[in-house]
Design brief:
alpha+beta, 4 helices, disordered N terminus
Amino acid sequence: MSLNHGLALSAPRSTLLGICGLALTFPPAAAGQEPAAGQEPAAGQEPAAAQESTAAQDPALAQVAHLKEPRISERPDEWMLVVTAEGDPNTIGAAAFGLVFQLYFSIPETPKGPGFQFPRARWPESLEGPKTDWVGRYALPVPRTVTQLPRHQAREGLVASLEEWKYGEIAEILHVGPYTEEAPTIERLLDFVRAAGYVPERGHEEEYVRGPTMTGPGDPERYLTIIRYRVKKP
């Protein structure tokens, strides 16, 4: 099923970044933002005691548990280290993220411990065509003091750059489970957006809190992926 903002939900979700086999579990990061002015926090949040229990049992989930319910919030624009790659994410994604991490850890100003954020990927255009034509932007936030990239050799088809990612008002939700089962979560988020009187802008973003590891796929039922869209009032 294709949505009017250009994301084809019929495209197999397993073709997105999570299946690339990278280690997508990272140190704590400020994943959440404050609700937009005039909006109440989404209903259904766990009581404090339940949140403490969740934190003790699964610290990664505790960081993003507030996004189990969809919400609209304000997010500042961010300066990003980006690798652009055209092609099926199953075949190009691992190399793209590999270059992102290689460059990131070669830059002295980037946080290597506290302050290190989760990796993200954007597909700014429609995913309705063949996967070989998809253009993915694989990225990590970096300080604005980073103005040039280290010298590097990139394999053919990978282009590294520094650029600003625009945000503003965004809608986001946490998907818990396999990438192949994201479609209902995306539909739930988009229903929430429309009910709130917003429309999603073109493009699809994912932030990888927990996914496959370098040694294997891990447990897909425990994958944590934040799904995000920029939104606006019509």
